[in-house]
Each structure stands twice: as structure tokens, then as C-alpha cells.
Amino acid sequence: MAQHTLAFEIGSEEIPAFDLHSAIGQLKSYVPKALDDARIKHGEIQIFGGPRRLIVLVHDLPDATDALKQEFRGPAVRIAFDKDGNPTKAAQGFARGKGLQASDLVRKEVKGTEYVFATINEPAHPIAELLPDILESLIRDIKWPRSCRWGTTSDYFVRPVRWIVALLDDQVIPVTFADVMSSNKTWGHRVLAPGAHMVPTANDLLDVVRAASVIPGEEEREQIIRDGVAQIEKQTGEKASLPAHTLREVVNLSEYPTVLMGTFDEIFLHVPHEIIVDAMLKHQRYFPMYDNKGNLTQHFIIVSNGDPKDNDTITAGNERVVRARLDDAKFFYEEDLKRPLESYVADLDKVVFQEKLGTVLDKTKRLEKLAPALAKQAHLSNQNAKDLARASKLCKADLVTSAVIEFTSVQGIMGSYYAKASGETNQVAQAIRQQYQPRFAGDDMPDSLVGRLLAFEDKLDSICALFAVDQEPTGSSDPFALRRSAIGIVNMLVDGLPVKLGDAIDTELESLNEQGIEFDDEKVRQHVIDFFVTRTKVMLKDEGYGIDTIDAVLAVHESEPAVIWARVKAVEQTREDMPEVIQDLATAYERAHNLRDEKLGDAVDSSLFGDAETNLNNAITQASSDVSAALANKDYTEALKDLAKLREPIDTFFADVMVMDEDIDLRENRLRLLNRFVNVFTDVADFSKLVRK
Amino acid sequence: MTSSNVEQKHTANPQAPTFQQIIMNLQNYWSKQGCVILQPYDGAVGAGTNHPATALRSLGPNTWRTAYVQGCRRPTDGRYGENPNRLQYYYQFQVLIKPSPDKIQDLYLESLRAIGIDPDKHDVRFVEDDWESPTLGAWGLGWEVWLDGMEVTQFTYFQQMGGFECKPVPVELAYGLERLSMYVQGVDSVYDIVWSRGDDGLEFTYGDVYLENEREFSKYNFETSDAEFLFKAFDKYEAEATSSIKAHEPLPAYDWTLKCIHTFNLLDARGVVSSTERMAYILRVRSMVKECCASYMKDVLHVTVDEDEKKGE
């Protein structure tokens, strides 16, 4: 059978870089699915994409789909026909469901019973007839974060579609979208190969595109950029920093990348480097360079889409732009330094935190209130307590400085420079710099205890305040990144931050009340606590702890993340160290738990005991006091070991004693003993969840 | 001179077009594309988009093409004439074409040639930039156009204006004239741009023409303006807009709405609008703009409008 190639290109005005990346990914799954759904056999599928195009190549396509005969079994004949031999509703319904008449049904015997069967013959379809619809659907099916209309058409795409190439070998497949009709013409690089270029056959598309100075694939453009960077690194002996996000964007901002090096004036190296790096990466998509000691240098990397002949003009132009940018940054920085950091705090009343929650000044006031409470809990020294109070007051002040308004990602960092320049202590400056840490799982925590407490305040305030005005995260929507904040807090608590989450939440809700925010205290408190417990649970799961262990611990209604964490760790460890003991104990616990009758209480009558009961009762008394002591010392492993000592006596008890004795006194006394047994576990974990089934 | 800290100072390239030549060349170019060359709106506006020739004419089914220079007032951007790149009053060259032509990107690139920039010799890039104006209740998709890394033009396919769908879709181009001129002339401070050059060699710079304006208005906007007066003025302008709407006169209504917007911007620069008030003022302005647009559609274009038209992605 003849094998054919399909080439399909959607030509668009410049597609946003990240949308392009996503569209390439979508096509990788849509194309095979669309072909499979139409029963079109196919060989390799290749997807490419650049700023002005998405390309799909499908190899080894047949002339047509295979004809298909499908047989479906319907109801048994005795149900399908009435006694007069006429088709029943059941038979008619079945036939209709398959697009047939009841008279089309045939009878066949299967294992001694006669059934009616429907047969559908799907003829072979030439794929050239199927492709127009499939290709048009592909254009429509790509999901964009935002799409637009243009001209007089009413179709939506990420940006206007300007050409479509659709070729099955040398035959143009007719596809129409938003008034654009498919053809065999692609468009070249704007400057290097402007205008339309003829594509003789589908197999030629990539060659024609390449010859028109367009590098069709993301990987290939990335490699060109990396190679270019490596060469500049070799020439200069410096290292470029290529953050993944900016690199992805740069890869999708040019059709024909050329890597160039620019230089800025040395004078700008006196401006905080973070702001220079931000200006270069975020605003200009340049890559900064560092010397072998890790210091920022005057060099930066530009990726151009222009004609390499004009590299000098392009480099000079970019250098001028960077000069203006950095001049701006320097100007802002120097302006900001003219006032002490503290003087900016009052201006925070112009920055909205959240509509119902007022401004960042209100937030600052809540942080200032939380600070002494945390300082007390954490037994901070006088100096540390002073620093925490100071940092809480100043931490958001840089949000209204010119440098941060212009270069938002340096918030905190600029605050720290300004704090130092205003004579604040190093610890205050450092805490301000690190207040947004940890930003994600695995990110560094602030270095100092004061820094961590400040980060804790900031994150907890956002969570409580937004929960109080019903802005908690739902599903995939978490616009204030509260989940990440909670993860940060849990990580710090688990790492030993010496504060109680519950108490801090109370202080926080009090502040919100005092600021006139109205909400149901009890409800919000519970929601916040549940939110942290759920986060902790998810984090424990991600760390690889067993879900049964986690559930066993959570059943005890502990809500301090650090306590939950320590207990889960201890239970998991103990289960590993003495698997049989725990398994046995869990089984016994479950049995006792099922049998017991809470109403009876746990006041046992020892005069009714036999040996096994006395033995168990004594062991419980011992374990009970040992567990309490261990818990008081926060030694969960010890508490579990104490519980483990109950294994022998409980096993003997169940082996020797018949709990459900006919004598009601004996029976109830034994049930009371089991109640006592179960109660010892109450404060540690629900062992019934640990039974391995 | 300005406070630019960089020692190098570039004097303007004498071959390059002057500021006014750039404007005249753009006018010439777009007039050949069938655009009505308008003069700037005679009231204070914050952007070329606010000119009724763009804001109102974006609506409705009629073909419309226009191009004009618009002086833009951004009171909070004042820097007392001390920053070489930032002004509280600056010029945009605005083009609006409805429906957007298929070859609009090429038309745009050709316009650069008209002002002395050969796009083939530079790195011209279309970098994603979605546009949204909360006060106008408008949004669109497009790019900022980069010339060797410098943003020189906003390029937008309008999707909504005043909360109404734009059908057909207009395309807006907003050239930053000072940036382009600095680039073309090779100067590092906006004040060094050569505005005009006579046959006898007499030159006027941007600084000669506007430096004093920047100094005085920066001071006025930040320090001198009378907030109490401005608050009252806002209310009065708003009332006048409302009564014009009632009289089915959307153009005067929109004129007063623009005055409200500028008054609000002045209050904002003065730092006397609290955050909650701020939101409330923006909402008041937006609903005025929406009413102007609705009235324009009904009373001028005679298009029936669906009161809650809110389609779009």
C-alpha cells in the first residue's frame, strides 16, 4: 500500500512564548488521538513550533482507513420477538441504537441460546477526505490561556492566523479557519527570508522552512543558544546564568537565534546586583554573566532574531537600552536611599493587600502585634525580640520604594539594602531580605531564628486574613499562593521553630477582629487548622510516609504540624524496627476496640480477675504511666515502646479468656478491662489503622 | 543637563530626522494608508487610547482608520525633569484601524522605514503583552514591539471597550515618540532630542520646549494641587457627565468623563486617595465610560446593545 506524508503548518502572528510551549505539548497528544479516533493508521508523528508557526508531520499514512465489520450481540431471541414473531421494543431499541432497523438483525446461537445480532459495515475512507475536518479541529482544539478575534472573523486563536499549509504529499488538503485557506505556501523569517515559500511536497516542509531561515523546533533553538553561550563563556572565562523560565521564553522569542554579548558601564556594578539581574532577566530577557568568584560582571548575553550581518548594530542598540534601564534602576535606588526605610511605612496605606482586608499598612500592624507574642513563646533574648519587632514593622516598607515598584521581584532584597543604609541591625536587614523564604518546597529557610519568625508571621497573616474573608484556596485556584505559604510554615515548624501554631493563629484572629474585619471566629480558626493539618498530611505523604501511619496519628486529633510530624516519624520507625510487635498489637487493639463498650467505663473489679486479666491489668497500669511520662517528654518512640509491652499480656488475655462470658458481671468486667486497654492508646495513635490486611 | 549618571553623552546624529519630522513622516505614511489624520484631543488624557476617536470609534460595525499625535498626562510619572527617561507629559503616536488589516504587521514595519529605521537591519521582535484598562473596561491581546531590545510600540487587537465586544476588531498601534526619537537620534536623555532644525541650523531640543513644563507640573502634581478642590471637581464633572448621558449626548458625556479620569489621576499623584476610595473611584469612572459607550452605540450608531454583554475569553 502506498505510504503518504502529511505536513500541516498553522502560521500565526507571534505566539506568546509559554503559550507556544504548551501548544506544542497539546498537539503531541491531540494528533495521535485524532488520527486514532478516525481509525487512520500512521507512522511517526513529529511536532515542531516556533514564534510564528506550529508544525505537524505525520509519516507512513495509508490511502484509506481499513473497512470495518463490527458485530454486536443484542437480546436473546425469546426476548427480541413476541409470540407472533414480531420484534419487541427491546429488539427495536437495540437496532435503533446501532442505526439499523429491526429487520436488519440476524439470529445466531451462542452456547445454546439464540440471540439477535447487529452487523455494521464501516467502509474504507480515503484519508484525504477525513483530514480536512481533523486538521480544522486541531486548530480549534488547542487551548490558550487567552485568545482573540481579529479583523471581521469570529474565530478565536492566540493571535491572528495568517497562513495554513496542509499537504498530503503534493496534494493540498483544503482547510479553512478564520477566512484563511490552506495552501502549499509557508512564510520565511521576516528579515532573512521574507515572503512566501513554495512547499512542493509534504516531505519538503521542514527543508523549506529551514531554508527560509527558520529553526522549527524548540530543542534545536535551545541547543543553538546553549552553544552560543558556551562559546562566549569560553572567550570571556565567565559563566552565564540561564534560569529555566527565561531560557524557555528566549527559545520561543526568535525564529533564528543568534547569541551576542553586550557590555554595560562599570558604574552600574555599584547598584545592588539583584536589581540589575532583575532588569536584565525579567525586563530584557538578557542573561547575566559572572566571574569565577561568582561576582556579576559587566557582560550580558543577548539572543537576537535579527540578521547576523547586523550583529554590531543590534548589540549596540541593546547596550543603549540596558544603559537606560540601569540608569533608571540606579536613579531609583539613589532616590530611595534619600529617606530612611522607616519613613516609607506610612505610605503602605496606599498599597491594597486585599479588597476586604485593607492595605499593607494594616497587614504590617498585624505583624507588629504578632511579633511580641512569638518572641515570648520562643523565649527570644531582648535584642532578638527588639530585632523581630523592628523587622516586622519595616519588612513591607520597600513595596512603596521606587526601585521595587519598578522591579517587583527584588522586594525584600531592596528592603534589606535600605535597612542597612538606615542603620538597622544586620539581623533586621537579613530578616527583611529573607522574609519570603522558603518560597517553595526545598527552598532555603531564613538563616536566623528572627528571620524565620518574621517569615512565619508574614505567611501566617496572609493565611488567616484571607481565610477570614473567605478567600481560601479552592481546587486549582490559589491566587495568593496560600498552600505554598502553609508548606513553608510547616517546614519551619518541623525544623524546630519554637512556637505553637494554634496560639499564633489565636493572636492573628484577634488582630483581625480589632481591625474591624467581621468573621466567625470559631469557624475560621477551625478552617485554618484543618488547612494546616491537610497540608502536613500531603507533605508527609510526599515524603514517603505510609498513609495508614499518617491516618493513625491524625485520628488522635493533634493539630500542631510539628507534633504530627514527629509522631508519624516515630510510628513509622517503630513499625520498621519491630514489625511483628506492632502488627500483633494493632490486631489486638482492633479486636479490643470492636468489642469494647464505652458506656461501661473503665473501673475494673480486680477481685473478678483470673491470672491473664490481672497480668493485663497490671501491664496497662504500668504502660499508662510510662506513656504519659514519655509523651510529657515528647518522646513518641518511647511511648510506642511502652505500648509495645502490652503485646504479650493482651495476646495471652485473648488466648486464655473468653470475653463474652455468659456471666454478666464477668463479661462487663472484662469489657471494662478492654476499655482501659484502649484508653492507653488514645493519646498516641489509632492502632486499628495500622492493621496490615 | 539631567542627572543621568553615565559620563558618556551622545549628541544627536545630525542626519537623523528631528522629533517633528518623525511625527510628520508617520502622519504622511498613515495618511497614505487611508487614515484620517486627526489633531490631539484638546483635553487632558492619559493615553492616546482615551481619545474618543479610539475609545468610542472602536465600537460598532463601521470601518474606521485614524492616526494622530496625542500628548499624554501621567501625573504620577513626574520626575521634576531629573530623570532622562521618564516624563509626566509625553507624546504617543496613535493609529487605529478597524477592521484590522491582514497585513498590519507588515504595514507597521514599513512605517518604521518611514522614520529612518530599517527593520531589516535591526532585531525587531513582537513580545507578548496583553493590554487591559480597568478604567475603560477594555482589553485586548497583542505585543510590545521591541527594537534591539527597546520597547517602541504597543500593538493591540482590541477585544472589548467599555465592556462591549469590538466587532469587527480594531487594531491599535501606539508609538512611544520620545523613545523612538532617542533611538533614531542616538541620544541618552529625552531632553536632548532635537525637536526642530531650521535650514539655517537653528535647533530646538525637547528640553528647550518641555523641561520647564516637567519641573512645574511635577511640583504642581505632587505638591501644589488643591485636593479639596479636585475632589469637588470630580463630583461636578461626574454630575455633568451623567446629565449629558440622560440627554443622549455621549460625546459631551465622554468629554466630562475624561476630565474625571484626569482629576482622579491628579488626586492619586497627590497621594490623598486611600486604597478603598481608589477602588471606588475606578468603579465610578468605569461605569461612566460604560454608559458613554452604551449611549454611543444606541444613540449614534443605532446598534442594539445587550446590557450584559460580557463575552470573551
Which features would summarize this protein structure in a list?
A: 693 residues, alpha+beta, 7-stranded mixed β-sheet, 4-stranded antiparallel β-sheet, 49% helix, flat, B: 313 residues, BirA Bifunctional Protein, domain 2, Methane Monooxygenase Hydroxylase, Chain G, domain 1, 2 domains, 9-stranded mixed β-sheet, 8 helices, 11 strands, globular, disordered C terminus
Descriptive notes:
The complex is a heterodimer of chains A (693) and B (313). Chain A is built from 25 helices and 18 strands. In chain A, helix 11 (382-394) packs across helix 15. By secondary structure, chain A is of the alpha+beta class. Residues 1-7 and 309-313 of chain B have low confidence and may be disordered. In chain B, helix 6 runs antiparallel to helix 7, helix 6 (227-246) runs parallel beside helix 8 and helix 7 runs antiparallel to helix 8. Chain B folds into 2 domains: 19-220, BirA Bifunctional Protein, domain 2; 226-300, Up-down Bundle (Methane Monooxygenase Hydroxylase, Chain G, domain 1). Chain B is of the alpha+beta class and 313 residues long. Chain B is globular, with a radius of gyration of 20 Å. Chain B is built from 8 helices and 11 strands. The interface between A and B is large, with 56 and 52 residues.
Could you give a short description of this structure?
With 693 residues, chain A is an alpha+beta fold. Chain A has 25 helices and 18 strands. In chain A, strands 1, 2, 3, 7, 8, 9 and 10 form a 7-stranded mixed sheet that branches. In chain A, strands 13-15-16-14 form a 4-stranded antiparallel sheet, sandwiched between helices.
How do the strands and helices of this protein lay out in sequence?
The complex is a heterodimer of chains A (693) and B (313).
Chain A: E1 4-12, H1 17-37, E2 45-50, E3 53-61, E4 68-76, H2 77-80, H3 89-97, E5 106-110, E6 113-122, H4 127-141, E7 161-168, E8 171-172, E9 176-177, E10 180-183, E11 185-187, E12 196-198, H5 205-211, H6 218-236, E13 239-240, H7 244-251, E14 258-263, H8 273-283, E15 287-290, E16 296-304, H9 311-336, E17 352-354, E18 358-359, H10 360-377, H11 382-394, H12 402-406, H13 413-421, H14 426-433, H15 449-468, H16 482-494, H17 501-514, H18 521-542, H19 547-554, H20 561-577, H21 579-595, H22 611-632, H23 636-644, H24 647-656, H25 664-681
Parallel strand pairs in A: 7-10
Antiparallel strand pairs in A: 1-3, 1-7, 2-3, 4-6, 5-6, 7-8, 9-10, 11-12, 13-15, 14-16, 15-16, 17-18
Chain B: H1 19-32, E1 36-37, H2 52-55, E2 64-73, E3 89-98, H3 104-114, E4 124-128, E5 131-133, E6 138-147, E7 150-161, E8 164-165, E9 171-176, H4 177-185, E10 194-197, E11 203-205, H5 206-224, H6 227-246, H7 250-270, H8 275-300
